[in-house]
Amino acid sequence: MTKQVPLYIQGEFVAGEGDLIDVTNPANNQVIAQVASASNAQMQAAIANAKEAFQTWKETPVSERARLMMRYQALLKEHHDELAEILAQETGKTFEDAKGDVWRGIEVVEHAANIPSLMMGETVENVAREIDTYSYIQPLGVCAGITPFNFPAMIPLWMFPMAIACGNTFILKPSEQDPLTPMRLTELFEQAGAPKGVLQVVHGTKEQVDVLLTHEDIKAVSFVGSVPVGQYIYETGTRHMKRVQSFAGAKNHMVIMPDADKQQVINNLVGASVGAAGQRCMAISVAVFVGQAQEWIPELKEALAKVRPGIWNDKGASYGPVISPKAKERICNLIQQGVDAGAELLLDGRDCVVSESPEGNWVGPTLFTKVTPEMPIYQEEIFGPVLSCVEAASLEDAIALINASPFGNGTSIFTSSGGAARKFQHDIEVGQVGINIPIPVPLPFFSFTGWKGSFYGDQHAYGKQAVRFYTETKTITARWFSAEAATGPNFSIQMK
């Protein structure tokens, strides 16, 4: 019998009452589970219970909330490899890549365990004569998260631990393509001692998302996904008076200066472009070769040609399949559009076959040169193991090229010049910048700070900005009258 993935509502694992959705292994497209969407009644019950649970959870001392996160991170570490294996089988990621997905989520839970210091307000004594001002940081209420298929451990762990540590309750709607990992995260959260109602998990598609975006009791929504959906989430959520952080698409460039270490460039560029089958919002999809650095492209081709995809437990595989046949079809269509537009295809991964699992959604490493900004393969986020090479005459030209992009998620420069690095980091209009680091995803005590069309909202994920996103600040101005204090009406707003 096919495994049925439950919902988690009112502290109980229950069967969904809506349509069944197949969960497939991308390496062979066999059904490994089915997930039932939440009915409207179940959605309403989840929200109502989260609202009810908030009334007691918000009063839970912050030290107790921190200890919950300490217990949770300990359980996540204990079950690290188990989680990675579940994740690998439903996403197709290699085991090592899956372990990285889990670990980066654990790091955010560790950060959430520091919540007492992150929730501290501010105090100034004697802002005026015998008047003090101080601020408190208080939770919002019921928050929701909508997460994508490509990081089913890390991105849910970006969201609900920070929100709940801040004193909110949370409703998670994970991707219907790989719900097994989020449900195991939920089981461990319950095991850690989370009170009933603090976390709810619902499944479904647009119908269920729309309930979260429009329900008056949802105060904030976090989302990670594609550009069109990200725009819809932001527009719909804010129109219904919700706080929204919406992380959308990307087109990340890596600038290669002629003075860079060639072997470091090639090694890093190969991993950053085709690792995780290119299904990362921080993947490098455009390599900008400045001046004579373009002479290294033949060696880059040789290195990429040696990379092979494979099944999750193949220790020699560099990455796994893309998530679905539809995703493969889209990637292959974009590769053909690149050829039709006049780009030079040095490596073509469309006919990739993995003998151990020939029915999988395999795309081999793909390399283009002579790519220009007008081409679809430059403009669109391909989300596959496809690297486009462009040329720039100078660092200034490279910076202008990147700044003209509508996206601003991540970028990097490889150089041995401190001056070039300083100019790049100062002038570039991108939120996350790497210097001799290809994928500059910050650790959780900083925030994930995409710009421009890569992010819609004001406060970003994890770090201090997540605390601001999931809380409100209340400021109190107080005077306690002494016996000698003057009495009588005061018609001025000044405090003296």
Write out key terms for the chains shown:
Ald_DH_N; 496 residues; alpha/beta; Aldehyde Dehydrogenase, Chain A, domain 2; globular; 7-stranded mixed β-sheet; 23 strands; methylmalonate-semialdehyde dehydrogenase (CoA acylating); 6-stranded mixed β-sheet; single chain; Aldehyde Dehydrogenase, Chain A, domain 1; Aldehyde_DH_dom; methylmalonate-semialdehyde dehydrogenase (acylating, NAD) activity
Give a short overview.
By secondary structure, the chain is an alpha/beta fold.
What does this structure look like?
With 496 residues, the chain is α/β, with parallel strands linked by helices. It folds into 2 domains: 3-249 and 450-476, Aldehyde Dehydrogenase, Chain A, domain 1 (3-Layer(aba) Sandwich), CATH 3.40.605.10; 252-406 and 410-435, Aldehyde Dehydrogenase, Chain A, domain 2, CATH 3.40.309. It is 37% helix and 23% strand. It is built from 16 helices and 23 strands. The chain has helices spanning 40-57, 62-78, 80-91, 95-112, 115-118, 154-165, 180-191, 206-214, 227-239, 262-274, 297-305, 325-341, 376-379, 395-403, 418-427, 463-469; strands at residues 4-5, 7-9, 12-14, 20-25, 30-36, 123-128, 131-139, 142-146, 169-173, 199-201, 218-224, 243-247, 252-256, 284-290, 344-347, 366-369, 386-392, 407-408, 410-414, 432-435, 451-452, 455-456, 471-479. The strands form 6 sheets. It has a 7-stranded mixed β-sheet with strand order 15-16-17-14-13-19-20, sandwiched between helices. Strands 10-9-8-11-12-22 form a 6-stranded mixed β-sheet, with helices on both faces. Helix 10 (262-274) crosses helix 11. The longest helix has 18 residues, at 40-57. The model has no long low-confidence stretch (mean pLDDT 96).
